[in-house]
Amino acid sequence: MTSTQHARFEQRQADLAADRRRRWAWGSGAVAVVAAGVYVVGFSPLLAVQDVDVVGAEPGDTAAIGELAAGAHGRPLARVDVGAIVDGAEARPGVESATVVRDWPRTLRVEVVPRIPALAVNRGKGQVEVYDIDGIRIRSTGSVPKGVPTISADRGAEVSGHGVTAALSMLEALPQDVREQVSAVTVDAADRVSFRIGRTTVVWGDEAQPQLKVQVIDVLLEGRPKVLDVSAPDTPVTR
């Protein structure tokens, strides 16, 4: 090997060594950056939960869900057990579904879809039970929510669970625009349902043939009868 070749060989070795040092430095730097990022996101108080927002829920549920999520305060946002918060929120009778969103850098947001009141049962002594269309008892309260029909039983009897189910079945069969006009729902001992739309008393009867009953109501209600009996929808009666 000539002196020139030897010099070139040594230069290549030096270049390779320098390249290895640069790659090591870059690798070490990248690891350090990743480690710092993991620390900041997962352990540092810089991204810890400071605020909890509950949106979409009724006031009582808002307070309860806020208390449920309060345990996340001070915990790094990335490490919050959002599944536990969702499970706790959805265990509330008034909550149909819930989603937890990490709103960086320091806010935890619980988005709630509430159950919609469909029927109220006045149990007396200032106690009103409120149900959604699926028959879930949302809450007990002291007054009937605005726009929600109230069910009562014939002759002052107690409204049974079967009576509530029959009334909800009737409401579910009605189109939304008609359902919103329903008031003063009554159920008899045989769970036959009647209700009022404006000044008309509609005798719905049992749960049979709901679609035909809706069609008959749609046609005959235009005449504004005092009573519209669709309990036998093939032979409806008005008077």
Q: What labels would you give this structure?
A:
POTRA_FtsQ_type, FtsQ_DivIB, POTRA, elongated, 37% helix, 239 residues, alpha/beta, 3-stranded mixed beta sheet, 9-stranded mixed beta sheet, transmembrane helix, Rossmann fold, transmembrane, 12 strands, Ubiquitin-like (UB roll)
Summarize the helices and strands and which ones pair or pack.
Elements lengths: L2 H40 L8 E5 L3 H11 L12 H9 L4 E9 L3 E8 L2 E8 L2 E6 L4 E5 L8 E4 L7 H13 L2 H4 L2 E6 L5 E5 L2 E6 L4 H11 L6 E3 L7 E2 L1
Keywords: Cell cycle, Cell division, Cell membrane, Membrane, Transmembrane, Transmembrane helix
Subcellular location: Membrane
Main location: membrane
Describe this structure in words.
InterPro entries: FtsQ_DivIB (IPR050487), POTRA (IPR034746), POTRA_FtsQ_type (IPR013685). Keywords: Cell cycle, Cell division, Cell membrane, Membrane, Transmembrane, Transmembrane helix. Its main location: membrane. It is found in: Membrane. By secondary structure, the protein is α/β, with parallel strands linked by helices. 37% of the residues lie in helices and 28% in strands. The chain has 3 domains: 1-42; 47-114, Ubiquitin-like (UB roll); 117-238, 3-Layer(aba) Sandwich (Rossmann fold), CATH 3.40.50.11690. The protein is built from 6 helices and 12 strands. The strands form 2 sheets. It has a 9-stranded mixed sheet with strand order 6-5-4-7-8-9-10-11-12, covered by helices on one side. Strands 1-3-2 form a 3-stranded mixed sheet, covered by helices on one side. Strand 4 and strand 5 form a beta hairpin. The longest helix has 40 residues, at 3-42.
